[in-house]
# Entry
Amino acid sequence: MSRQHPDILCNEPGPTVRVAADAFPTSALVFDQEGQPLKDCSAERAASLVQRERAVLVSRDPLAIRLTDVAGRGATPTPPGILIDGRTRNARKKRRKKDKRIDQLKRRDGLDCFYCGRELLDDCTIEHLLSQTDGGNDKLANLALTHVKCNGIAADLSVVEKVKLRDRLRTTTNVG
Ligand SMILES: [Zn+2]
# Structure
């Protein structure tokens, strides 16, 4: 073998485990704190994360690690790791995209809930009129602003049922 892999030392409970270099895989499965799968990383990177206590080894065959709770380590700055940084970067990007969409919808529709017609305050979210599970897309024409609560009521309804719900809620609002 021309390429030498480093041995891995892991901090799982019990005695330190050393995995033989010749049995070492080239990539590792990565899971987040809740056990959700993330992008694979190299075995070297997995070893480094485990050694720095950024992750714990959950399986040796296949090689798999789980990231430890970085947010809980108050004194420790976010490590420069691609996995963790990639996650926060994506979350921020998603948040920015959502805020932009909300602004566009407010400009188009005003500040009232699509369903009940009452004013939207902080409890404002984006409703997919044709739900994503039914093939609805993220284009503005398929989106409307609603209260989180109203969005919850409409969650599993078809488009027709949503329009009926809208009529019902608005009638209730006017009467009440
Ligand atoms: Zn509402």
Remarks:
- The two ends are 78 Å apart (CA to CA).
- The pocket of zinc ion is lined by residues 113, 115-116, 118, 146-147, 150 (CB under 6 Å).
- Strands lie at 8-10, 17-19, 27-31, 37-42, 55-60, 63-67, 124-128, 143-147.
